[in-house]
Amino acid sequence: MSRPSLPTDRPLRDATRLIHEGEARSGFGEMSEAMYLTSGFAYDTMEAAEARFDGRDPGFIYSRFSNPTVATFEKRMIALEGAEAGRATASGMAAVTASMLCQVKAGDHVVAAKALFGSCRYVVEDLLPRFGVASTLVDGADLDQWRAAVRPETKAFFIETPTNPTLEVYDIAAIAGIAHEAGARLVVDNVFATPILQKPLTLGADVVVYSATKHIDGQGRTLGGMVLGSDQFVMDHLHNFLRQTGPSLSPFNAWTLAKGLETLSLRVHAMQASAAKIADVLAVHPKVTKLAYCGRADHPQAALVAKQMAGGGTLITFRIDGAKPEAFRFGNALQVVKISNNLGDAKSILTHPATTTHQRLAPEARAELGITDATLRLSVGLEHVDDLLEDVETALKAV
Ligand SMILES: *Cc1c(COP(=O)(O)O)cnc(C)c1O
Q: What does the pLDDT average to over 68-88?
């Protein structure tokens, strides 16, 4: 057999583990990760099949349960997050839905912050109650609201921080403390911060979920998701739910995402450096009325950002001086930055949340979250920062 892929006698840093963790070479000794595009696995004998199924032999059975290429991606994510265990899913929403549904039953109750990605809000606000799981939405920054929302049957808290699109930051350690006092788990959607800049498990969260579609792929190619937590959470709740309901990640997409992880740290840091420069220019521009960037000293929760994040991230949200026509004129005048609803991509992306990602919300609900018709979200990519600055400044002149 081949040599072990990593030294086991000393700890390795994230950047190294992201490149080597979880290697599963075939007999050919290929350098790049093999792609095991297979639904099933053959057994040498009937007895071998029996041993696989009764658990004496821990090998692979069926790609709905596990697959070598998917396992490579999972191992890299587990190492990066510092989690005990984790499972990949076909999309970020499959990860969010599974992370919640796997741990609740009719009669339970969940509490979530109001400021959520649209589909996450649907899961908490509309889907769970259809199956008898009540939900309460609170202002995530107000710890008293979390305390007041707790009921004897509360099983889970759900937050996203920084929030989409307003980039509000919630205190993960404090909210985890309230959850644990209530005997509930805290689930954190860590997409905006990325696992490079924020490690919710070390701050007290119980479960972390990702849309790997965003920074982890980072090149707009595939959907994917990941749920991470303790061995016990995965074994008692998540594993069986995923295995029996089947929102499995395809091995092809897992391969793409595992290769994405090799460059994740480099990409996030480069995008963040450009975002910081662009935020500084936009913040003082006369046609920009309000700007949020987690890396700026004027972020309302700058102290909390310093406490729980390792940087300001790759997203900027701002308001154009005006309303929808001005916001649209700005977007339509951009040439390098593309108009889309994705984020975390090598290509910079502008989004108008009110008419796209948050269109489903009633105008009052959007207003409550601070999303106006002039609000724009910029996901800063890997283009040369001067080209991005010229693009943004030219488009502002068109407003
Ligand atoms: C995109 C996104 C999701 C959903 O992920 P998909 O891969 O699109 O299913 C969930 N949460 C956040 C914060 C996101 O940005």
A: 97
Distance (angstroms) between ligand 1 centre and the Cα of 144 equals: 28
Contact between residue 211 and residue 191 where contact means Cβ atoms under 8 Å apart: yes
Q: Radius of gyration of the chain from Cα atoms?
A: 22
| Residues 113-139: tens digit of each pLDDT | 999 988 999 999 999 999 999 999 999
Nearest residue by C-alpha to atom 15 in ligand 1: 191
Could you read off the pLDDT of 146-172 as tens digits, one per residue?
999 999 999 999 999 999 999 999 999
Q: Which domains does the chain have, with CATH numbers?
A: 14-261 (3.40.640.10), 264-397 (3.90.1150.10)
The H-assigned helical ranges of the chain are 14-20, 46-54, 68-81, 92-101, 118-122, 128-130, 143-149, 172-181, 194-197, 231-233, 239-245, 251-262, 264-283, 302-308, 324-333, 363-369, 385-397
Query: What is the distance, to the nearest Å, from the Cα of residue 338 to the centroid of all Cα atoms in its chain?
Result: 21
Give the Cα separation of 225 and 74 in Å (integer): 10
pLDDT band at residue 14 using 50, 70 and 90 as cut-offs: confident
Residue 58 phi, psi dihedral angles, 5° rounding: -80, 15
Say how many Å lie between the CA of residue 119 and the centre of ligand 1: 8
Strand order in the sheet with 338-339: 288-292, 315-320, 375-379, 349-351, 338-339
